[in-house]
Amino acid sequence: MTSGPFHLVAWKERDRVELVRSPTYWDRGAVRVERFTALSIDDQAASTNLYFTGACDATASNVIPSTYLPAINGEQRGGRAYKDYDVSPFLTVYFAWIQTRKLTTATFAVRCRSRSIAAQCRGSPTAARSRPRS
Asked: Where does the chain hold its CATH 3.40.190.10 domain(s)?
């Protein structure tokens, strides 16, 4: 499945990716890791805890909760930062949808009729007027 130093052995969508060292990689001796497991967890604190307890080798999130930084960078460990802690720039792309139109009463009423978001609209004076009668 790969042409690099690792072969994919397991991929469970939105859960984990597991790789093992390739026996056919041209520079196999330079690869020191036998097995590599990366977990995909939405909760930053949970993924950081799993990583630092050794339950996984990497996480899909590149964000560490700010409350963890004093321990990780060594401030709370007598100046001993974790060996794999590194502060450096990285390339990333962010995308944001920004509402640039004013939400009109008519648009709001149409949105409130939708069953998927009806719970969000309940209690609004506009929604109360625009609800279909049963």
From this structure: 6-72
The CA distance from 8 to 16, in Å, is: 11
pTM: 0.48
What's the rounded Cα separation, in Å, for the pair 84 and 82? 6
Other residues' Cβ atoms within 10 Å of the Cβ of residue 6: 19
Q: How far apart are CA 131 and CA 110, in angstroms?
A: 9
Q: Quote the CA–CA distance of 50 and 73 in Å, as a whole number.
A: 18
Q: Enter the CATH code of domain 6-72.
A: 3.40.190.10
Q: What is d(CA 104, CA 6) in angstroms, rounded to the nearest whole number? A: 54
pLDDT at 20 over 90: yes
Q: Which of 6-15, 81-90, 102-111 has the highest mean pLDDT?
A: 6-15
How many whole angstroms separate alpha carbon 5 and alpha carbon 21?
A: 6
- Measure CA 22 to chain center: 27
* For residues 32-41, average pLDDT: 86
What whole-number distance in Å separates Cα of residue 112 and Cα of residue 133?
13
